[in-house]
Fold this protein.
Amino acid sequence: MPAKPRWLTIPLASALLLVLAILLIYKFGNFRQERVVKNFLEELRQGNYQKAYQLWGPAPSYPYADFMKDWGGTQSYYGTIRRYRILDSKSRGNGIVVSVEFDHLKNPVFFWVDLKTNTLAFSPFNELK
């Protein structure tokens, strides 16, 4: 087999590196926001509700009492967090939607991570299409 011309080596290598970089950005582009969700869920799993609420981003429209009704352990809406898995994430406007599967819930929960503040909220989107 004849050797490739030397002048093709650099453009070919550059194109391959570009494709690899694009794939890595696509796969890990929302890593920081997924980590915010993971940190929040780990605090809940460990029972650190005050710290989890701080990660959520305290707001007058969602006081700590309401947060505890949703996330405060066995009697809360979402129950005790034991095992979870981040399914996917996707950019939407000025935030990232992160889909999380819990072992004790039938449907995934969609979180919204604000890109500027990295605070959490319930996502206005219930799908990642």
Notes: The mean pLDDT is 86. The first helix runs from residue 9 to 28. The helical segments are 9-28, 31-45, 49-56, 64-71. The chain has one domain: 31-122.
